[in-house]
Amino acid sequence: MRFSNAMRPCALTALATLFLGSLGCTPMDVQNGELGNGGFKYLCDASTPRCQADGTAQVFPDAIASGARFNLRFERKGGKASVEAVRPVAKDIINTVDTEPPSFVAIKPGWGGFVARNASGELVDFSMTRILRAARIKLPTSADTDTFKLTLAYTGARATLRPVLVSSGDLQLAGEVGFDWKSVDPSVAALEQKDRGRWEVVARSRGATRLRVEGAGLSREIDVEVTGP
Length: 229
Prior knowledge:
This protein has 2 domains: 26-132, Immunoglobulin-like (Sandwich), CATH 2.60.40; 136-226, Sandwich (Immunoglobulin-like). 7% of the residues lie in helices and 41% in strands. 26% of the residues are buried. By secondary structure, the chain is mainly beta. The protein is elongated and about 65 Å long. The chain has a 4-stranded mixed sheet with strand order 3-10-9-6, with no helix packed on it. It starts with 7 loop residues before the first helix and ends with a strand. It has 1 helix and 20 strands. A hairpin with a 5-residue loop joins strand 14 and strand 15. It has one helix spanning 8-22, and strands at residues 30-32, 38-42, 64-65, 69-70, 72-76, 85-88, 94-97, 103-106, 110-117, 123-132, 136-138, 149-152, 158-161, 164-166, 172-173, 180-183, 189-193, 199-203, 207-215, 218-226.
């Protein structure tokens, strides 16, 4: 099969993707810079499903939720001198939050850029990331399926819930927004926060109740039934 010069890069990319997929390779945890001097990594937060030992996401996210906070770091190729700072470019899309270390906030949907500069202020590399508006909250179980009803078999039983923001196209969005939970009847099922991103539902007594979670201007409810003593 022959490809034109214009089509050859696309064809090679497609073939590489097919080949790597057949080997069971996982997606890249690094978003390569446009200048080829290194790559950006996403620092783990409450939205990150899987983290690596170095505190970065196992997979660089496809998009970040509008209104969410997040952080990145840049790693140079070949062990060269470290980069002084990563900063946003289009501050109407992504801006800096005055925290330590500095973090970013996604202002509104669009494509936001960020640059890495060395200690002298010289440009080292840059890249772009997509900001999307969250359309709904999902509550995946360990099987990554959305949960609408939760059944607990006995008093003291526990189940973990981790809210996830998704776009209108059902794309999971990264970024930390903060969620508020409430149980209509805590005497049946109570809530305990395990960490920034995970909550546990604890069965207290036989009966039925409803949980409500709010975040990013959205809300979601889930029915809970405790069936045993």
